[in-house]
Amino acid sequence: PRQRPAGPPSPRRARRSGGRCCPRRSPATTSRLGWAPPCLAPPLCPRPCPATCSSFVLLSITVVTWNVGTAMPPNDVTSLLHLNTGETNDVDMIAIGLQEVNSKINKRLKDALFTDQWSELFMDVLSPFHFILVSTVRMQGVILLVFAKYYHLPFLQDIQTDCTRTGLGGYWGNKGGVSVRLSIFGHMVCFLNCHLPAHLEKAEQRKEDFATILHMQQFEGPVANGILDHDLVFWFGDLNFRIESLDICFVKYAIDSNVLSQLWEKDQLNIAKSTWPVLRGFQEGPLNFPPTFKFDVGTNKYDSSAKKRKPAWTDRILWKIKPPSKGWGAGGHRPSQGVLSVSQLCYCSHMEYTVSDHKPVAAIFAVQFASKVDKPQVEIYVADEWSRPEQAVVRYKMAVGFHRSSWDWIGLYRVGFRHPKDYVSYVWARSDDGVSGLQVMFSEEALPKGNGEYILGYYSNTSSSIAGVTEPFQISLPRSEEGSSSTDSSGSSSEEDDSTLVLLAPKSRSPSPGKMKRHRSRSPSLAKFQGLILRPSSRDRGTSRSPSPQSRRSLPRNIPTIHLPQEELGHHGVKGKELGQAAESPEGSSFYQTVQEQGSLRHVSADSPLARADPRNLGLLPALRLEMIDQALGQRWESADQGYYPCRKMSPTSPPGCGTSPKEGCNP
């Protein structure tokens, strides 16, 4: 079958990410890419095109901010994200900033174990439109989510997050800022979501807190260490600026009469942009929508309580382009002239949402810049269709200078996946010395059965991001006799997914498998108890969703219990925690143990899923029945002293142990 490289999946992508300023297409470019980048419309060309013109990228970025007031998510957010207008087909990235998400102690404990409901909602809504969660960061009730179309993922690199507390003198995170910074086609962009102090008289405090956030947030790397060092900054959130001087009656009259311009000059943020040096260069579109605070919850009526708060534009979205660098380049032009331009296409509030005393605000931007990166770091080649297991061969090559790791892996994703760790199965990427002609193969057990569309992605552990993707391709394999499994067919997406838990741990080497059960136990304290019998509940038997292909094999019915010791076994030379260092991939899996007889020796098989279970990850187990035992393993520990202890097969979640790479192992 024809080999398919990772190229533009549709003409729309070519228009968005490969347009050229020149009115003529280059035949050489057409021959090299296999598709002709279309010309940009004249309004998008900022200047007359020179004889040699570099490729330009035009991205559409949507930014949303909403103070949700500890409310539960609404049933529908399609209008907020402009999903029902046809505009989303042209949107490439979406940044969502939330404030005052419920962060009471019981809610925070639940969100620490499971993905918070707001993040789940946005992933559920956006994944059918091929948006993938690129990064997320949370500081108590302040959350920032960044999504992008899947085919942009290889061009989104150097992803980092940071947060700064400013509440209670910097000790409490109810106020402050969270940020996600990343390189987009070689340009450094930062999204900053802030919740600043409230009340009319706290304008100076808001200024000081914003300056503190800018000063405290620092990123690693040779460029763009501070927020304002980025080529483009989006600053948004509940900034809490109010309307000065005017009384509440005049403010409401101006709103009812739709003469909002009479309120602009008294808006504290508009005043501050011209007087505060820290805000120099920040831009904002016209406030042509009514003030977004404060409403009676459940209505579109401004505050009718005894406090009768004056309406104000507290929820704002601004942007700043880094000033051109000093000095003149060749030809008498500044080096950064014409490199980056931003146009705001939409700036509006959404009055239809009444769950909070704030109204959400959204803005759509058209961002155009010269592309510094036109090829992914890893190019993946795959057949148009896998109809037989022997066709599941993946060829790929890495760009010169790509920093590969022995922990890199290639994931198989169903079309409509939610985040880079929401894969169906994976294989380890080879770490050969050569950078071209590399090849791996998925085992038959790891392949989904049935018909469906899938995507392959190369996950780089060094950058914690996807460095290469393919176009969607077809997998058509016969189903098993028992019927289709939860991973079969592209349409089985009705189950809820808690797999985003691993996203909260950016150093995790393995993605969470999709389609997990809501009812499983995830208590992190389980790993602290050594004297436990761990048995899977009946509803979890035979439904392992471990990313390890080996764990997909059918399991025996009569499975013995694994006994963990009650006391330290240091006098035997084996510690209890070593038993669990055989983790293949513990997330969302049911664990069993196979006991083999070798004469009088009984030991744990290294190929068993239980032998790969890591007790440190017991917080990710399904529901378990826990029973105390009176004795330890007895002779099994004595056998371990004699060198018969099994060595694990490494997985993305397991730290280096036996062997120098995840492909190496050792015999018992």
Write the layout of secondary structure elements.
Elements: E1 3-4, H1 11-17, H2 27-33, E2 56-67, E3 93-99, H3 105-113, H4 117-126, E4 131-139, E5 142-149, E6 156-167, E7 172-184, E8 187-195, H5 203-216, E9 232-238, H6 248-256, H7 261-264, H8 268-275, E10 315-321, E11 340-349, E12 361-370, E13 378-383, E14 385-386, E15 393-398, E16 409-414, E17 425-428, E18 438-441, E19 450-460, E20 465-469, E21 473-477, E22 532-536, E23 562-563, E24 595-598, E25 601-604, E26 624-628, H9 635-641
Parallel strand pairs: 2-3, 8-9, 14-21
Antiparallel strand pairs: 1-13, 2-12, 3-5, 4-5, 6-7, 7-8, 9-10, 11-12, 13-15, 15-18, 16-17, 16-19, 19-20, 19-21, 22-23, 22-26, 24-25
Describe the 3D structure.
Helix content is 11%, strand content 26%. The chain is α+β, with helices and mostly antiparallel strands. The chain has a six-stranded mixed β-sheet with strand order 4-5-3-2-12-11. Strands 14, 16, 17, 19, 20 and 21 form a six-stranded mixed β-sheet that branches. A five-stranded mixed β-sheet has the order 6-7-8-9-10, covered by helices on one side. The radius of gyration is 28 Å and the shape is elongated. The two termini are 42 Å apart.
